[in-house]
């Protein structure tokens, strides 16, 4: 399952959620302000920064603030 690490106030997160919904791509959302372990994960893949949206894919790879095109391309590459 695709996981989005987010915050309630993140405009980029809201935009990407809307785009994922329009494309019919399933994902889970984890609020890093409510989940300290999630915040630690986000910092571990973003040089110590709590940058959102951070996407984690089934293979363990991550993307920070990706476009919907980047997410779709990465998902396609993983399923190939």
TrEMBL record:
<dbReference type="InterPro" id="IPR011915">
    <property type="entry name" value="GlrX_actino"/>
</dbReference>
<dbReference type="GO" id="GO:0009055">
    <property type="term" value="F:electron transfer activity"/>
</dbReference>
<dbReference type="InterPro" id="IPR017937">
    <property type="entry name" value="Thioredoxin_CS"/>
</dbReference>
<feature type="domain" description="Glutaredoxin">
    <location>
        <begin position="3"/>
        <end position="58"/>
    </location>
</feature>
<dbReference type="InterPro" id="IPR036249">
    <property type="entry name" value="Thioredoxin-like_sf"/>
</dbReference>
<dbReference type="InterPro" id="IPR051548">
    <property type="entry name" value="Grx-like_ET"/>
</dbReference>
<dbReference type="Pfam" id="PF00462">
    <property type="entry name" value="Glutaredoxin"/>
</dbReference>
<dbReference type="GO" id="GO:0045454">
    <property type="term" value="P:cell redox homeostasis"/>
</dbReference>
<protein>
    <submittedName>
        <fullName>Mycoredoxin</fullName>
    </submittedName>
</protein>
<dbReference type="InterPro" id="IPR002109">
    <property type="entry name" value="Glutaredoxin"/>
</dbReference>
